[in-house]
Amino acid sequence: MADNKQPQSREAYRRQQTKQDEQPEPSSAPKKSRSKRQPVGDQRVGRLKHRLNWAIIIVLILIILTYLVLFFV
């Protein structure tokens, strides 16, 4: 059915997709877990706090610059 180039109805397409989802994916290498790449709990919160602090500082600086430009120009 995948070689068929004619348009399919939605129902036929959904059936085809569910059949493909049910088939196990052949993989030669074992899947790596995402936990090695993503920070966990406290690390994620700490990084978000750091980013939020920088965002607040940048917004405050931009507000002050805007005020100065509007006041003196």
From TrEMBL:
Highest rank taxon of the organism:
Bacteria
**Biased composition, Basic and acidic residues: where in the chain?**
11-22
**Keywords noted in UniProt:** Membrane, Transmembrane, Transmembrane helix
Tell me the segments the record calls region Disordered.
1-43
Q: Which residues cross the membrane?
A: 52-72
Name of this protein:
Uncharacterized protein
Organism this protein belongs to? Loigolactobacillus backii
The taxonomy runs:
Bacteria, Bacillati, Bacillota, Bacilli, Lactobacillales
